[in-house]
Design brief:
The complex is a heterodimer of chains A (about 160) and B (about 70).
Chain A (H helix, E strand, L loop, with lengths): L7 H11 L3 E4 L1 H7 L8 E5 L4 H9 L4 E2 L3 H7 L1 E5 L3 E6 L2 E3 L5 E3 H6 L2 E5 L2 E5 L2 H11 L2 H17 L1
Parallel strand pairs in A: 2-5
Antiparallel strand pairs in A: 1-2, 3-4, 4-5, 6-7, 8-9
Helix pairs in contact in A: 1-3, 6-7
Chain B lengths: L3 H8 L4 H9 L4 H17 L3 H19 L3
The chains are: A alpha+beta (about 160), B mainly alpha (about 70).
Chain lengths: ~160, ~70
Amino acid sequence: MQPSRFDEVAFFRALDQSGARALLIGRRALVLLGLPVLTADYDFWIAIDDIEPFNVVAARFDLRPTRTPDQARQHGRYVLENDEHVDVLVARSVPTFKGESVQFDELWKERVRVPLDDVHVSMPSLDNLILTKQIRSRPKDLEDIRLLRILKESRS
Amino acid sequence: MIPDGIADVIERTVTHEELEDALARPIPVDERDEVTALVRWFTTRYSSAEARLSYVRQAYERWRGHARPR
């Protein structure tokens, strides 16, 4: 199967213009920060009230949700997919592996906006990105924490 | 498709000790320099965010092509 002609810049532009509060998390956020890591999918954490506008943007790119907004709110997660795969976290807060509570509103308040062509991509600050990596705490998350810590040190 | 055995290893939850170590251990200078050099290469060779995203998409497709069963 050929990869889709998914236009990332157009997607992020539409998202930026939609007003949906969506933070790019996961490895693509690391890539935007300058870390060359391999990844297959997109990961977003969105405001629990913004599922509908987020899905409207996704629909323009033929990305279909695996759950209705109500189901997504109930489960805290859903996926948008065609031959692209977008994992969407939708919760007011999520506990880390250590039991610390990570609040979407806090991450949104402290977000950074990374320029991408003529738009900006919202993502958590470096410290908060490290925090999001402690939610699942898989081996690759530890590797990402290592890279983010070094990036942070090199910037300070 | 990743075989189950490998997926189990990739997707396992690390131990508290492993997480604490990742968060707190001092990072040796040579390790830091290696990553810093990699970032410098990546951000110089692919100087815009869109170029970096595009590179990763292509790199993933190459990886998937090699990983696909023959």
